[in-house]
Amino acid sequence: MGSKYKMLEHIWGIAKQLEFSTVVDLFSGSGAVSYLFKCHNKQVIANDYLHMAANIAVALIENRSEKLLEDDVLLLTSNTNQSDSFVTRTFEGIYYVREDNEFIDLVRCNIASLGHPFKQALARAALIRACLKKQPRGIFTYTGLRYDDGRGDLRRTLREHFFIAVTELNEAVFDNLRDNKVYQMDALGLIVPDHALIYMDPPYFSAFSDNDYVRRYHLVEGIACNWRGVDIQMHTKTKKFKGYPSPFSSRSGAKNALETLFERYRNHPIMLSYSSNSYPDKESILGMLKSHKKTVDVVPLDYLYCIGNKKSRRHNKVQEFIFVAS
Ligand SMILES: C[S@@+](CC[C@H](N)C(=O)[O-])C[C@H]1O[C@@H](n2cnc3c(N)ncnc32)[C@H](O)[C@@H]1O
Question: Cβ(192)–Cβ(198) under 8 Å?
């Protein structure tokens, strides 16, 4: 949800006009924007408070050379008696068939045997990718096969998806000769280097939809953190757990958080991705940025939203902007 994958060309078109060698991706999500900057040889600092987002960033942004070799994959997928059967027991009949759940448990429990933390992150990222591909609409607010969206992906086994994901992720590992770093924390607590470009793509607060990432991705977030420190709401159909506290989940919190970030980064160049149906609105953001920055530009991009809108099943035309301030 909210991935900027389809807007990377626009984002780079704007960023390349700015002078910077380090970029901070404060809300890295899928890692698509961090990866874009890595490809353009920037030093990347990626941050997100989700374990799954930090995990993928460790695998592809911080990691410069570790890949999953044949022996690693064999180790990950070999039957041992290490499996705790947690997913098989907890999510029986909810998202996947038993064979898939057992495969998830097998890989989850074998990951610790991989020596290197980057290899472990790659394996977890591949497992997460496999789970997302096999879930209708890629989100875990649906249970069972009621929402079969007809994709061939739903007919593949989790094991097949995992092998494909391992190949794809391995191919994406490379070294851009920069010291790239990943953090998993509240964006408001991050300390960043002087002069870095601050790229912000915060959760959008809107009256039309909640921005609770954990509600949508709890199963894969659970895989990423091994359900440590969370309480599964066993009475719910989806067996989700509570979202993490974020200032962006309330109207006033979102405004205050943006104000704090603009003030804090008054001496840094800022790029902010934003959407027209969010609060604070475009004019307010402009006003807030102008009070801290000498120059502020707004670049509109056309974008069609397809998910995350509870009130309407229709595609929802919203305007995306990139604010550029320095
Ligand atoms: C719009 S998405 C970012 C999408 C990302 N740019 C991409 O291309 O995939 C917003 C992200 O902010 C994260 N997030 C929400 N509140 C946060 C907070 N207080 N600190 C850090 N990350 C937060 C969410 O986990 C989510 O991944």
Answer: yes
| One-letter amino acid for residue 286 of the chain | L
- Based on the fold, state whether residues 54 and 82 are members of the same structural domain: no
CATH of the domain at 51: 3.40.50.150
The reply to whether 262 and 225 lie within a common domain is: no
Burial 288-316 (b: 16+ CB within 10 A, else e): bbeebbeebeeeebebebeebbeeeeeeb
What confidence tens digit (pLDDT) does each residue in 239-283 have? Answer: 999 999 999 999 999 999 999 999 999 999 999 999 988 999 999
Ligand 1, residues at Cβ distance < 6 Å: 2-4, 27-30, 32-33, 48-50, 53, 186-187, 201-203, 213, 246, 248
CA 28 to centroid of ligand 1, rounded, Å: 6
Same-domain status, 182 and 296? yes
Question: Ligand 1: which of 25, 47, 49, 242 to mutate, most ligand atoms within 8 Å of CB?
Answer: 49
Q: Tokens for 269?
A: 């160049």
Whether 18 contacts 199, CB under 8 Å? no
Q: State which residues form the domain around 41.
A: 1-64+178-203+246-300
For the chain, how many structural domains are there in total?
2
pTM: 0.95
Cα–Cα distance, 268 to 253 (Å, whole number): 23
Residues 55 and 111 in one domain: no
